[in-house]
Amino acid sequence: MNTFKRGLFLSLLFILAIVLVACSEDGKETKNDEEKAPVSTEGSKVEELTIGYTGPLSGPAAFYGEETLKGLRMAAEEINDSGGFEVDGQKYTINLSTLDDKYLPNEAAANAKRLVQEQDTKFIYTPHSGGVYAMQVFNEMEDFIVMAYTSEPGVTETGNKMTVRIPPRYDRYIEPFTKYEMERFGKKIAFLPTATQYGKDWADSLRPVWEANGGEVVFDESIDFSKDTDFQTIMTNALAKNPDVLFIGGPSQPTALVLKQARDLGFEGGFIIMDQAKLDEIAAVLGGSYDLLEGVISTPPLVTSRYGGTEAFIEKYRSENDKDPGSESGFHYISLYILVEAMKAAGTVDDTEKIMAAMDQGAKNLPEDKEVYYIQGVDDDGGFLPLLRMAYVENGEIVQMGEEK
Amino acid sequence: MELLLQQLFNGLTLGSVYILVAIGLTLVFGILHVPNFAHGALYLIGGYLTLMAMKGLGVHYFVAIIISMISVALIAILMERLVFNPLRNAPAIHDKIAAIGMVLFFDALVSLIWGNDYQRMITPYGDSVTIFGIATSYQRILVIVVAVVVVILLQLFLKKTMIGASIIAMAQNREGAFLVGINANAVAMMTFAISGALAAIAASISSPINLVFPAMGHIVILKAFVVVIIGGMGSVPGAIIGGLILGITESLGATYISNDYKDMIAFLLLIIIMTVRPKGLFAKGVY
């Protein structure tokens, strides 16, 4: 009897497993990071260069972590498939070594130590400012370059000589965003950014600019996406103050819901959206139409950019992932190419000081067909200098403005 | 005045979801005296199964909810059979460790099968509507209606049916229940099935307001534990009152004090209630 019962339950378990798998929309295969080093045709030995990555690969931010990693992987695979790159007569292929830090600064620091000690890597990517700050405590001493994917200007202003900041710094957007929204909608703004350090820093930069332009902050609180299940309460309170503009932000998908709830409650004004969220992803959550996004100003989606390498990148990403790429994938992709170009220009793969000095040259040497974004150069602090581009929604369509190449 | 009404309504929506999750948790505790930390995982799977049934099989929202309820009830039974039942004579801490292990397992499983993306569940009831000056959507009204209907049906089931009576008997006096011939295994499985189905309903009706993503279980389970502790572990009326108290305190606290402090207010309330009534509001009057 007992064995019969056990058998029954095991078979039930089996059926459930099948149901679960059958319900899944697409079977995803996990990829192996280890790339076999190809032997070059001349017979000389190809060496493998390890590039480290620590980011959120599990937990609430895992989706974001995966997107950043996809860009890196695509670039690494392309470089390896073309036989690697040559520095000072020696050919190298790239080995991406990835670790999960669950978006936690302390884990990022521990991972960085591990990558440096076990694999002797000189370059470590991380896509969050907390992790960057944690690594900056010891990166100069342990001699590795932090490849920081964060728009936080602070990370390159601390005087750390071994940090590269990849995306555009967010403080450059604040003035034009303020002017646009104030002119179009009015002077009263309600703050409802994400309750992270990044959200608070953004809000702290926006507040003085908004007030200096004669505006007024009528509501100032934040939304914790890791704790709140419903934003109706806070939105009701914010709208009770009759704002003309809302300042919101965070990951695209919950931000889209915040925006929708504001519209559901009858808000007709504009939105300033922090650079983390992407207009196209927000629209996708809301059913693909830009109607609800009327009056939004934010950073332009990657799919609307047009540089030498954008189209090829988008096409390749779509064929591999069946969706549109976000800017984090695009920036990671070019950043690896720029890093490789910088190593070529510096003539070394392990002298970090020389490589940092050659970073500007690396950005300028980026082949045009890899130019997903146009980077004018790298400043003395290690910050990439992309063009300042913005996008707003008018009459249901995305309109772009900003610097031209 | 309008703001107060609006916020009371918002609190009611929040509270309804808490109630549905908390009742499942409290029922299991009442029978087995196990705080089932893995209850959030059932909520998570419930949300995903409804979404996938809608997307993959193309069935109607309500049909998807029923598929999800049955599947999650089966998973909950398996949980009881494969994990909690073998551990019934083990030291008390083992249950809890096993439950935490299951949370990690199901989280990873969901990420593996369905990915880490945020997904949106689109239902036919997303349109917004204004009633008596309160701006809301049909989905939010549905949340409240479903919670009320489920609570009433559950009460009828517990009070009026033989199986329900045996669940209550088990909760009140385990040995006594054995003596009158109640099958403990059957009752335990039944309780887990109900708790799983309730988690699936809660996830399915609240997901259209929020999103479906792998961390959705954690957020809700934390609140549900607070509700259960406020109401008294093992008490169904306690879970209902506790859910309403927490939902409404959160929304009114956010309105009249500060959104940034609303969790603090909720937990302060928890501490006060614990000080005055250490076993929760309804500790002794189980069911």
TrEMBL record, chain A:
Pfam families associated with the record: Peripla_BP_6
Signal peptide annotation: 1-24
Keywords: Amino-acid transport, Signal, Transport
Domain of life: Bacteria
InterPro entries named in the record: BCAA_transport (IPR051010), Leu-bd (IPR028081), Leu_Ile_Val-bd (IPR000709), Peripla_BP_I (IPR028082)
Keyword Transport: yes
Domain Leucine-binding protein: 49-361
Family per record: Belongs to the leucine-binding protein family.
Annotated protein name in UniProt: ABC transporter substrate-binding protein
Natural source organism: Solibacillus merdavium
Taxonomic lineage: Bacteria, Bacillati, Bacillota, Bacilli, Bacillales
From TrEMBL, chain B:
Keyword flag Cell membrane: yes
TM spans (from-to): 12-38, 58-77, 97-115, 138-158, 178-205, 211-231, 238-258, 264-282
Location of the protein in the cell: Cell membrane
Keywords, in A-Z order: Amino-acid transport, Cell membrane, Membrane, Transmembrane, Transmembrane helix, Transport
Membrane topology: Multi-pass membrane protein
InterPro entries to which the protein is assigned, alphabetical: ABC_transp_permease, BCAA_transport_permease
Family: Belongs to the binding-protein-dependent transport system permease family. LivHM subfamily.
Stated name of the protein: Branched-chain amino acid ABC transporter permease
Source organism (scientific name): Solibacillus merdavium
Source species taxonomy: Bacteria, Bacillati, Bacillota, Bacilli, Bacillales
